[in-house]
C-alpha cells in the first residue's frame, strides 16, 4: 500500500480510483434525484428541449455548491466520500478552502479529458494525483479508523 507524506508531516493513504468512482456515483445519483424532484415540481420554459433548458444553470450551481461546500466543510467530504471513509485534504492535512474546492470542482472535466486521452493513447493513467488535485494541492485520502474510548 502506497503512502503519501504531506508537508504537515502526516503519512496518509490515498484513496483508490475505485473508491473515488463509487463515491462519485453516489453523489451524482443524489444530485440527479434532487434535480429530478425539482424539475418535476416546477414548470419548465420548454419541455421539448431536455438538455438546453434555462434551468441547467441552476443544476450546475447546485452541483458546485454541493461539491465545493461539502469538501470545504468540517466533514471534508461529500456524502459519497463520507460513506466510503475518504476525505479531501490539502497539503497540510487540513480542510480545503471554499475557493480551492471550487477550483477543484470546475477543473474536474479537464481531468476526465486527460484520463480519456491517456487511455486512448495507451498510456498509463495516473493512480492518485489527477489534474484537479494537482492544481489545488489536494489529496483524497482514506480516513484513519476512529478509536473510541469509554470515559467512566
- Strand order within the widest sheet? 1-2
The number of helical elements comes to 6
Binned strand content: 5-15%
What is the helix/strand order?
A: EEHHHEHHHE
- Structural class designation: mainly alpha
Overall geometric form: globular
**Could you tell me the mean pLDDT?**
81
State Rg: 18 Å
Poorly predicted runs of 5 or more residues = none
Number of beta-strand segments = 4
The biggest beta sheet is recorded as:
2 strands, antiparallel
End-to-end C-alpha gap: 37 Å
Share of residues in helices: 40-55%
Structural commentary:
The chain is built from 6 helices and 4 strands. The longest helix is centred in the first third of the chain and has 25 residues, at 17-41. 49% of the residues lie in helices and 9% in strands. With 152 residues, the protein is mostly helical. α2 (56-71) crosses α4 (98-106). A hairpin with a 5-residue loop joins β1 and β2. The strands form 2 sheets. A two-stranded antiparallel sheet has the order 1-2. It has helices at residues 17-41, 56-71, 79-83, 98-106, 108-121, 131-136, and strands spanning 4-5, 11-12, 86-90, 138-142.
Quick summary:
The chain is mostly helical. It is built from six helices and four strands.
Task: Give the arrangement of secondary structure elements.
Blueprint: E1 4-5, E2 11-12, H1 17-41, H2 56-71, H3 79-83, E3 86-90, H4 98-106, H5 108-121, H6 131-136, E4 138-142
